[in-house]
From TrEMBL:
Its main location: cytoplasm. One of its GO terms (biological process) is phosphoenolpyruvate-dependent sugar phosphotransferase system. InterPro entries: HPr, HPr-like, HPr-like_sf, PTS_HPr_His_P_site. Signal peptide: none annotated. Residues 1-86 form the HPr domain. This is Phosphocarrier protein HPr. GO terms for cellular component: cytoplasm. Pfam families: PTS-HPr.
């Protein structure tokens, strides 16, 4: 299992378009991927779950992946949350 804490730097947070890109990226990995905000855990491959997080810029999330590509998964998802979109 690989786990990483991320502070959202993207000014749009994890809403609409950034959430869609996050879910599409997560779905590209075989690992089971969860996003934690406080005590709650959300399926990173579910658009409804990711939107329900309601994460905004400056918030802290934890990405947890378990599987054969867990390292690549957390790195790719971290990058999405910490870099401004093109």
């Amino acid at each position: 299992m690989k786990q990483i804490e991320v502070i959202i730097k993207n000014k749009e947070g994890l809403h609409a378009r950034p959430a869609m890109k996050f879910v599409e990226t997560a779905a590209g990995f075989n690992s089971k991927i969860q996003v934690k905000k406080g005590p709650k855990s959300y399926n990173a491959k579910s658009m409804m779950a990711v939107l329900s997080i309601g994460a905004v810029q400056g918030e802290n999330l934890t990405i947890v992946a378990e599987g054969d590509d867990e390292e690549a998964a957390v790195q790719a998802l971290q990058k999405l949350l910490t870099e401004e979109p093109d």
